Amino acid sequence: xxxxxxxxxxxxxxxxxxxxxxxxxxxxxxxxxxxxxxxxxxxxxxxxxxxxxxxxxxxxxxxxxxxxxxxxxxxxxxxxxxxxxxxxxxxxxxxxxxxxxxxxxxxxxxxxxxxxxxxxxxxxxxxxxxxxxxxxxxxxxxxxxxxxxxxxxxxxxxxxxxxxxxxxxxxxxxxxxxxxxxxxxxxxxxxxxxxxxxxxxxxxxxxxxxxxxxxxxxxxxxxxxxxxxxxxxxxxxxxxxxxxxxxxxxxxxxxxxxxxxxxxxxxxxxxxxxxxxxxxxxxxxxxxxxx
Length: 291
Ligand SMILES: Nc1ncnc2c1ncn2[C@@H]1O[C@H](COP(=O)(O)OP(=O)(O)OP(=O)(O)O)[C@@H](O)[C@H]1O
Known about the structure:
The protein is of the alpha/beta class. It has helices spanning 44-52, 74-79, 95-103, 112-118, 134-146, 164-179, 191-197, 215-223, 245-256, 270-277, and strands at residues 4-15, 18-29, 33-37, 59-64, 80-82, 152-156, 183-188, 200-205, 208-213, 226-231, 237-242, 264-266.
């Protein structure tokens, strides 16, 4: 049996001439919250849809809870929690009716009341779906994804469009599931979300993994490079990216024989690192060599 909850090697998928996923490897351990972080169009949804068994792939090996999603059957589906973002449940049903209805699809569902409480919808249990806000609706979607008590939950951009309070509530839901031992894979384009939730993450851009690791380790690895800026005697501003800014400043001090005009040292935030890795900082896009 595969020791990994999700094991992906060399995954590729094209839409016509567009390589949406261009050789991705993923290794998600049982019990962890794994983030797939990347900008719009990076290939996150395509990857998750392949993991869910909803999209075919062109190349690569994919194992999700020990089975290939392309061929796995009903028993596998019951163990993989998938959160839909469509509005397929009838708007006239109440939250409680909807969760109860979905629970019947599973051999060993969680108690619908527990699930409603887990996503913080107790006060809305008797509300009709059409009366829910966008954030409440998304929490209901998660409730439907977890009512079957899945070992693995696959979430595609679960908090897009949430206000900050709803996002924080949602994070608590995910943390609660993780504490209970559920493995969670979630895609997001919010760096803050990946940092808040993920034990480990990959950053993807243009269908490739450009960085991976624990959020804190990524911050250390890519965030240690500082930018030293100064003003030349002719008035031009200069910038130099370096892992040893103190040395650069010492060199500048001896060159200027003391005070360095316009001196500044900027350490990148993780946000800057992320933007650089994904090629959104206006500079040359980071490629594989950056790892
Ligand atoms: N059904 C499709 N047909 C053609 N091209 C597609 C299709 N789905 C996605 N693409 C293209 O594949 C690339 C990856 O898309 P994907 O939706 O996987 O990215 P994403 O990281 O999830 O983006 P977003 O954050 O915007 O959802 C994009 O260039 C997108 O335009």
